[in-house]
Fold this protein.
Amino acid sequence: MRYLVGTDSVHTTAAICDYLVDRATAEDTVTVLAVANATDQTAHRDGQEALNVAPVRLATVGDVETNFRSGNPADVLLDAVRDVDADEIVIGAHSGDPDATRDLGSTARHLLEEADRPVIVVPIPSL
């Protein structure tokens, strides 16, 4: 199984890893993609930190790849699905920003409408 994980924060990555730890196996590949605006230094830093979490939290998974891209998160993730030939997309329900609304985010809504494979939306616990 090939999973594509979309993240923007350590908090989001941790919640997604909690979901995957009981599902992904040593035979699977997890590609973790942090997406942020390249000119927003805080978002860029948060994305890079988010990528550091996955290999540690998913140590039992066969292959964990990380990558950082800039652009519109939904569009970048839809392109990446084809690039990595993912079987499933796993994202957070909303931004990992502690100040973000708890409603389903725009990226999640867009992927649920446009993706041609399963999209798993993981709740992000409150801090």
